[in-house]
Amino acid sequence: MCKLGDNYKIPPQIIHRVDRIRRLVMQVLDKHKNEFTTDFTENKKILDQIAIIRSKGLKNEMAGFITKYIKLEAATKAQKQQREARAEAEREEQAEEIEETTAQVEQTSEQVEEENTSEIDSEQEEIVMESQAPESN
């Protein structure tokens, strides 16, 4: 009988093979990362110059892994820059909103202050007029 989970497991040989390729690629990238590009054939040529790889299949897998790694890294950088640009735009937008709100508050407070001063002035005039009016009693 076949278990359900057995069909979906990755054979250990493939995992070991990928780990070996990853390890070799990381060793190469540690020393020569800036020489590689996102072009597979160009990366194969660079691998020929840098290292002696006798197996054509291993060289192709390494070049493919390097290409995929460089592309992923470039995409990650682009996403990070987009996030930073969006965050900066949001910050600028919030700053503009704060400036607008501050200006509105200042304008409103000036209007209230003017209304209060005019009310106080009119009340003082009434008091002065009442005090100056001759008493008829």
> Beta fraction of the residues?
under 5%
Order of helices and strands: HHH
Using the alpha-carbon principal axes, give the shape: rod-shaped
Unreliable residue runs: 1-7
Q: What fold name stands as the CATH topology?
A: Diphtheria Toxin Repressor, domain 2
Helix content: over 70%
Number of E strands: 0
CATH superfamily: Ribosomal protein S17
Gyration radius, in Å: 38 Å
Number of helices: 3
Q: What keyword list fits this structure?
A:
single chain; structural constituent of ribosome; 0% strand; Ribosomal_eS17_sf; Ribosomal_eS17; mainly alpha; 137 residues; ribosomal protein; Diphtheria Toxin Repressor, domain 2
Describe the structure.
The protein has 137 residues and is mainly alpha-helical. The protein has one domain: Ribosomal protein S17 (Diphtheria Toxin Repressor, domain 2), CATH 1.10.60. The chain has helices spanning 12-32, 40-50, 56-132. α1 crosses α3. Residues 90-100, 111-128 have a biased composition (Acidic residues).
